[in-house]
Design a protein that fits this description.
Elements (H helix, E strand, L loop, with lengths): L3 E6 L7 H5 L11 H9 L9 E3 L1 E6 L2 E5 L2 E4 L10 H9 L7 E4 L12 E2 L2 H19 L2 E5 L15 E11 L10 H6 L3 H16 L3 E6 L5 H17 L8 H10 L4 E8 L2 E10 L3 E9 L6 H17 L3 E3 L13 E11 L2 H26 L12
Parallel strand pairs: 6-8, 13-14
Antiparallel strand pairs: 1-3, 2-5, 3-4, 4-7, 5-6, 8-15, 9-14, 9-15, 10-11, 11-12, 12-13
Helix pairs in contact: 2-8, 6-9, 7-8
Length: 384
Amino acid sequence: MSTVTVRWLDRLADVDATVWDGLHDGTHPFISHAFLHGLEHEGCLHRAHGWQPHHPTLWRDGELIAAAPGYIKTNSHGEFVFDHAWAHAYEAHGHRYFPKLLIAVPYSPVPGPRLLARDAASRAALVWAIEEEMRRGKFSSAHVNFHAAAEDGVFEDARWLSRLDVQYHWQNDSEHGHWRDYDDFLAAMDHKHRKNLKQERAKVQRAGVTFRIVHGADASEDDLDAMHGFYLRTFADYGNFPALTRSFFGHVARAMPENLVLFLAQREGRSIAGACCLRGGETLYGRYWGADESLPGLHFETCYHQGIDYCLHHGLTRFSPGAQGEHKIARGFLPTLTRSRHLIADAAFSDALESWCAAEREATLRYCDTALQHGPFRRAQANT
């Protein structure tokens, strides 16, 4: 009988890209070897940022059968599943919350596969390996953020706490709509919302703004310089730390040219704003935006309307524009549940959090129902 070996890797370069990518279907760019290795190699991750690579991998007879993007975290920066209150309470009771073990994609609140495996048994063995790593006493807890709904079942037999949150996604499918173009999409809305969006887009056009859509293979150094500059500007405006380097933007353009999509707003011959997106199998993922000028409607046009236009033109059925933002509802993005799982080493603390998580889940589900009452469509429902 073959023996399964667990190896924890401190850099993704120790796994061949084709071997890692053989564990997933290639439709989720954020779990690709190119994206994750790029974060490490291009200086986006190091201990000063609170991210130290610690990837669980399972091997059988020299073959990789399961793996996950794993990190030792010494803070909760860049995770988007907020546990600051947990950390304060844990330390108030005399325990150290950090370091903790996190399975996630750094800086990317994008739902998708997290437990990459050839079969269900290997996926279950991977979860067991993560549990054992935590139980050795090195970590206060283990967390899996923004995992796919299909992966939920593997956590049910253990003490993994379940949390739900909400994002706002645009969908064009048989359940939520089947639109041929933007006018068709607007026609599905009530009169008030349809009128507001037309006026919003018209303001940007009257300001003399046009758009260039640039894919990775066509992105010039000037395009990448501009997009990284917009990214830095946004982080500076909000007083946040910009972890992604200019070389990382260049890496994504070179290593993932079919995935990178830039929406660059042009005015008087120069780029004044931009949105950086990644394209998956049937989904467009909005990630970063920024602007050098403040114009009415520019943010909404760059980050939302252009992306919807792109999806309709290219046959993509989903647009995930990032975390948070109730203002997205009025622009056709419906409440969509996201998931995370959490294993706490201290049993008493875990028991206390269990009821808290249950109450949070109920509140989240109620919020989804309420938010849909303010949706722009004549008929809408949440994606649960």
